[in-house]
């Protein structure tokens, strides 16, 4: 796949994640739903349900982890995580890298802070789209650097 088509695919996936958010999915679900089926070889639609509780900073409290970050962590786990006792260093390393880049790009990882400082002030459905898009692009960078192709 050429460089331009990879960039187009990445942008398309980020836009798709934001569109899922605008359609009513939570940030965590939007990232998982847009990226999971593309990069997880044994993807199952039930995987989306695992991300629902991360909505609104964990259960709607806005006091915890941003759902877009949580969704990305779940995708990394689905690709590189373990299903039995074995070395999980790569999954841990990629998750730490994703979190660091997320924080560098957006300033924080807490839902409430992001909503107050990054999100469009009008609020409403899809207001976190900028966070979801940026998180998706960061996630795709981390996955590509780890050898995951689109």
What does this structure look like?
It is a single chain. By secondary structure, this protein is an all-alpha fold. The model has no long low-confidence stretch (mean pLDDT 93). It has one domain (3-145). It contains 7 helices and no strands.
Q: Can you describe this structure in just a few lines?
A:
The chain is mainly alpha-helical and 150 residues long. 63% of the residues lie in helices and 0% in strands.
Instruction: Characterize the main sheet.
Output: none
User: Mean of residue pLDDT?
Assistant: 93
Order of helices and strands: HHHHHHH
Shape: globular
| Rg calc | 14 Å
Low-confidence stretches: none
State which percent range the strand residues make up: under 5%
Number of helical segments with 4 or more residues: 7
Fraction of residues in helix: 55-70%
Number of strands: 0
Termini separation comes to 9 Å
Determine the structural class based on helices, strands and strand pairing.
mainly alpha
Indicate how many domains the architecture comprises: 1
């Amino acid at each position: 796949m050429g460089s331009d088509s990879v960039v187009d695919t990445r942008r398309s996936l980020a836009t798709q994640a934001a569109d899922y958010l605008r359609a009513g999915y939570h940030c965590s679900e939007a990232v998982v739903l847009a990226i999971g089926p593309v990069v997880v070889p044994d993807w199952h639609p039930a995987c989306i349900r695992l991300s629902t509780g991360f909505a609104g900073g964990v259960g709607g409290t806005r006091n915890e982890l941003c759902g877009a970050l949580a969704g990305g962590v779940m995708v990394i786990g689905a690709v590189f995580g373990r299903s039995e006792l074995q070395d999980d260093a790569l999954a841990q390393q990629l998750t730490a890298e994703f979190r660091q880049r997320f924080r560098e790009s957006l300033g924080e990882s807490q839902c409430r802070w992001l909503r107050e400082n990054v999100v469009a002030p009008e609020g409403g459905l899809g207001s976190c789209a900028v966070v979801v898009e940026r998180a998706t692009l960061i996630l795709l960078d981390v996955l590509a650097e780890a050898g995951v192709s689109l």
